[in-house]
Each structure stands twice: as structure tokens, then as C-alpha cells.
Specification:
This protein has 292 residues and is of the alpha/beta class. 43% of the residues lie in helices and 14% in strands.
């Protein structure tokens, strides 16, 4: 049920509050400025703070800077229950499907009895629809990872963003007869225009709080030692099945699965996730933050 309680944090996004803070500070600065030199120096400091925080907000999905997101599993309901007594994690794989890696990764996951969420690139799904179908047929879920997966995707305006995401949705639906529920932007970057694009498709933004860096030229044991300490209860783990070394990623995934099971983690199947709608969209289906 959607919460109707009022909260100032829901009146504006952090981006909206930053803009408000900037305008208030600018007004104070204009009112109290004593000299031209003081004004210029103070304005430079204010602009520096503004753009530094804006830069961090673009890069950090977990800040919910422009719109709400899932960056850990506490934002979702599992099997209809808000809390689980067991430690849980979710595997997510980005940048596929890739015929040189994805089939072997699927074999490994099937062997270990693990399900995952694959954030697929629309153009690759159109190129390799049989791999997308196999992902779904084996009990995994596909998320939208844009159509082109380019740096410029994250800097499109609203209509361009809508077209990019819709095109990926259509490619995935044509291949699997299913439409994704989740979206992860290329390189994990967000912008002020993303909320409207996701709202139009009913998509929810998903980040991560563990993993990453698995595409570096390091061996599986090195990467495991780097990633394992970051994994906690309710972690969303980011790995890649596109543009990666097959043997390395397979060995890394196997090491992580073994360690998680040895430490009594429940590796979540994405189909167990029910979204808490009040955390993402209001009763009219619009982004939680009214300034969006």
C-alpha cells in the first residue's frame, strides 16, 4: 500500500535541495557582499561546492540524487515479506549477452543452483536473441541496460533518454516476450532527465553496493579478495558478462558462490523481489520527488 505520510525529503530530490541551497546562498551572497573581489571569490567557492556535489550525485546511484533507486535489498520485499531472517545477496551481471561468456556463465549458475539478474544491452539482445531467451528460460531475469551503452547515453535530454530506454525495452520484449522491471544506466551514471524516462516505462533504477572492478586485468583470486570484504547482508553484487575474460569471470563467480554458501548467505532469485512502490513512484505513477 502506498504511504500517504508527508516528508520534506519527498518534497524535493537531493538535486532539488541542492539547487534550492545554491539559490539561497547566492541571494545571501548578493545581499551581504562588500566588495567586487569578495563577491567573485565567494561565488567561485559556491560554484565549486555546487558542481562537486553535482558530480558526486551523477556518479553515485545510492545517493538517490535525481530519483529513488535500489542499491541494497532493504528497498524491496522478498516473497511478500519485508524482512528475512537469512542473510541475502543478489547477483547482477552487466553488459551482455555475450556469446563468448554468457553461455558458460549460465552453465555455471545452473550447476550451482543460482539465479541472477542480467542487465542486458538492447543492441546485443537484438544481435543475440537466443541468449536472452536462454537467460529467461533458465529462471533468471533481464534488466534494461540501455540500447547503445555509450557514455553519451547518460547525458541525453528527456526525449532522447526515453527513446534510448524504450528501444532497449522493445528489443528485450521481442526476444523474450517479457518487459524488464529494472534499469541500470551505463557506467552507473544518472541525470535529471532519467526519472521521466523510467516513469514512462514503469522501470525502477537499480544500483549496487558490492563488486565492480572485475573487468580489470587481475586474476580471479585477486578480485575475490577485493570484492569479498564489501559483501554484506542485503548486498547487490555487480559483475560483468560482457567485455571480460571468460576464465577469470567464471572462476571469480565460482569463488564468490562458494564463499557465500559457506557463510550461510541466501543468493536471491530475482523473481522473489516485490517492489515497495511507495519508495519509487507515487499513487499517480510519477517519480516520488515532485520536482521531477
Amino acid at each position: 500500500m502506498i504511504s500517504k505520510s508527508f516528508s520534506l525529503t519527498r518534497l524535493l530530490s537531493p538535486f532539488g535541495w541542492l539547487n534550492l541551497f545554491f539559490l539561497v546562498c547566492l541571494s545571501i551572497l548578493m545581499f551581504f557582499s562588500i566588495s567586487h573581489v569578495t563577491w567573485k571569490f565567494s561565488l567561485l567557492i559556491l560554484l565549486g561546492i555546487y558542481f562537486f556535489l553535482l558530480f558526486l550525485g551523477v556518479r553515485k546511484i545510492s545517493w538517490n540524487f535525481f530519483l529513488p533507486s535500489i542499491s541494497r535489498l532493504s528497498s524491496v520485499i522478498l516473497d511478500g515479506h519485508e524482512h528475512s531472517n537469512k542473510k541475502t545477496v543478489l547477483f547482477t551481471f552487466d553488459d551482455g549477452p555475450c556469446p563468448k561468456i554468457t553461455p558458460y556463465l549460465l552453465d555455471l549458475l545452473q550447476k550451482r543452483g543460482v539465479k541472477a539478474l542480467f542487465f542486458c544491452i538492447g543492441s546485443k539482445v537484438r544481435q543475440f536473441p537466443e541468449l536472452a531467451r536462454r537467460i529467461i528460460e533458465e529462471g533468471h531475469e533481464i534488466g534494461n541496460h540501455s540500447y547503445h551503452h555509450s557514455w553519451w547515453t547518460n547525458f541525453l535530454l528527456t526525449q532522447g533518454m526515453i527513446h534510448e530506454i524504450e528501444k532497449a525495452q522493445e528489443a528485450i520484449q521481442n526476444a523474450t516476450n517479457l518487459r524488464p522491471r529494472f534499469y541500470r544506466p551505463p557506467m552507473g551514471l544518472t541525470n535529471p532527465h532519467l526519472a521521466r524516462a523510467l516513469q514512462k516505462q514503469g522501470l525502477v533504477l537499480m544500483g549496487w553496493n558490492a563488486g565492480g572492478g572485475d573487468q580489470k586485468k587481475k586474476d580471479a583470486n585477486f578480485l575475490f579478495q577485493r570484492i569479498w570484504p564489501k559483501i554484506k547482508n542485503q548486498s547487490i553484487i555487480l559483475l560483468h558478462d560482457g567485455k571480460n575474460d571468460k576464465e577469470k569471470i567464471l572462476a571469480l563467480v565460482d569463488l564468490l558462490i562458494r564463499a557465500l554458501k559457506e557463510n550461510d548467505y541466501d543468493i536471491l532469485s530475482p523473481n522473489r523481489i516485490t517492489l515497495k512502490s511507495e519508495n519509487f513512484w507515487n499513487s499517480k505513477g510519477k517519480s516520488l520527488y515532485v520536482n521531477q
